[in-house]
Amino acid sequence: MKKIIFIALLAIVGTIEVTAQQYKVITSVESIVPNGLGRSRIINALEDKDYKEFTSVQTEEDNTRNKSDRSEIRVKNFEETKLLNFFNLGGIRFQNIAANDALITSMINAMIADGWSLEFVTSAVESAGKGDNQGIFITRYIFKK
Asked: pTM of the predicted model, to two decimals?
């Protein structure tokens, strides 16, 4: 009886497909440039890159560098979804923020419908400091499948 249970368990475990987890990063860049002069987008790379191809090891004994051309790193196939800028001539536009939220929500819902789950969200602001009228608000959405 124990042998039958053991063989049945082995058969069940053998039929379970083990899949590696996949991650995908989608980035939104929202302009903090007044008068509507900036560019705001959602960026989604459509091709994969192997970071190892562009990585080098630095040691005291051997200072070898990866000889690959930086242009090889560039991704030429990507989706670019237009977003509205935070500012226009009248100042901050809350309607633009609401519109961007609707587009980002749509993107997240589409990813979830495609089998991805939203795992992490990180954001940052780039600005030179006090009196700086320019900058970007960047958010990275990290999905897992």
From this structure: 0.75
